[in-house]
Design goal:
Layout lengths: L2 E7 L3 H14 L5 E7 L6 H8 L4 E4 L6 H9 L6 E6 L2 E4 L2 H11 L5 E7 L5 E2 L2 E2 L4 H8 L2 H4 L4 H4 L12 E3 L1 E2 L3 E5 H7 L11 H11 L4 E11 L8 H19 L2 H29 L2 H19 L4
Parallel strand pairs: 1-2, 1-4, 2-3, 6-12
Antiparallel strand pairs: 4-11, 5-12, 6-7, 6-11, 8-10, 9-12
Helix pairs in contact: 1-2, 5-11, 10-11, 10-12, 11-12
Amino acid sequence: MDLSVIIVTYNTRQLLAECLASVYAETTGVEYEVIVVDNNSSDGSREMLERDAPQVKKIFNTENRGFAAANNQAFSIASGKYVLLLNSDTKILKNAIGKSVEFMQKHPEASILGCRLLNADGTLQRSCRSFPSVWNLFSESFFLYKMFPRTELFGSYYMTHFSHDAVRQVDVVMGAFMMIHREVFERVGLLDESYFMYTEETDFCYRAAVQGFHAYFIPSAEVIHYGGGSIESSEKHVAQLHSTQVFYLRKHFTGFRKYAAIGLKLTGVALRVPVYALAWAFTLDSLWLEKSRWYAKALGKAFYSKNH
């Protein structure tokens, strides 16, 4: 078996159905299996899978175990040489999966692979990151990456200086489409289940890099990523994202770097509360006021939470 495609879903029935249809319609030249883990959806996802997807291997959880834990469940029964972590809110285009497998077969130095992600309107969605550092966190916290996005000095965290039009080695690829050689799991271990959702791919790529594995990005494979399919609210998304990033810093940073990095992360979250409130005052756009409230709540969760 060349590849095991793992899809974790939670209340994304329609998106999941479209994702599966695109996998089967747009994947050629690869011997693959599809494994879907349903995290106790209540929207009819299970019934749809049992009725419409007999060829899919299925794991039905009785609770929402989160992204990392559910992927680990699927890996335990996966038989592919490569494993693709694929979000349920994606749509495969023009044999993106086959192109990715072919690249990994031809380039054994690529142990982890990401592709070109697109928004629903076809515009670029940045899918690469650099590992968090004190400087990157400083640039993020004080909006420098927004003010100078085309410079590597300030834009390296989100790689806003990279046009995503060339093959290159990167630190992190997004978990929406993340192809991994089985050997990486065997040597590095599975995803850290302390991350319920978000930042687990950064953690995994970092642990892999420490073991000498390399992540690559290729532009030739394209996938639409609608985003937020399993998120109940933007407020929860903001809180979850920043609390898991703080957990990552606590886990991997030591000494002065650890306290500086966490301080900058919390400063960045706190700074957005008044900045977004001021944006509302000038524009009267209620979304800015909502964002200010989200970040106020996220600050407390990030400060007190030790994991997620």
